[in-house]
Amino acid sequence: MNAFQALNDINQELAGSFSGLPTGCQQSTLWIAHTEETPITGIKIQEKDLTLILKVHISDIDLVKLNLQITPETVLIQGQPTEVAVVEGYFLPSGFQSLIPLPHRVHPEIYAAEIDQDGLILQIAKELRVEQSEVRIQFSNIHL
């Protein structure tokens, strides 16, 4: 047995042991900075009068299928590898998800999304009405 055959046998053993792992596993992060586990390499948020513009830089954007979930305070980006990203027997990428907190409340149903060569551009309508909150503080017989 030569060195190449031994390396191939080890590679097949590793691939076999990883194939038994549960499918659908993915990396979850609250986006703070780029790590090796997620392809999101940077986020820029630009605040306009009526909208928030998120520029999410995603490496190898063409190898990922994206799913977005927008709430009034966050954006959740989930990515699953496309068939092109899988190299059978050698490379099986996992999915990822990243939660991005927003600096201003938004209307989740009013948005526009665009994918370019650098990643995702997301424009979301800001919530302009600020809800008034009432804070009531009661002191009971405090002696100074």
Describe the structure.
- With 144 residues, the protein is mostly beta strands.
- Helices cover 12% and strands 43% of the residues.
- The chain has one helix at 3-19; strands spanning 26-30, 40-47, 51-58, 64-70, 74-81, 95-101, 106-116, 119-126.
- A hairpin with a 3-residue loop joins strand 4 and strand 5 (74-81).
- The chain starts with a helix and ends in an 18-residue tail after the last strand.
- Mean pLDDT is 75; it is low at 21-29.
Quick tags:
8 strands; mainly beta; four-stranded mixed beta sheet; 144 residues
> What does the radius of gyration come to?
23 Å
Query: Uncertain regions: pLDDT < 50 for 5+ in a row?
Result: 21-29
Q: What is the β-strand count?
A: 8
Shape: elongated
- Number of helical elements: 1
Straight-line N-to-C gap: 88 Å
In the sheet with the most strands, the strands line up as 1-6-5-4
> Which percent range describes the beta-strand content?
35-45%
Largest sheet: 4 strands, mixed
Sequence of secondary-structure elements: HEEEEEEEE
Q: Based on helices, strands and strand pairing, what is the structural class? A: mainly beta
Mean pLDDT: 75
What quaternary form is this?
single chain
Helix content: 10-25%
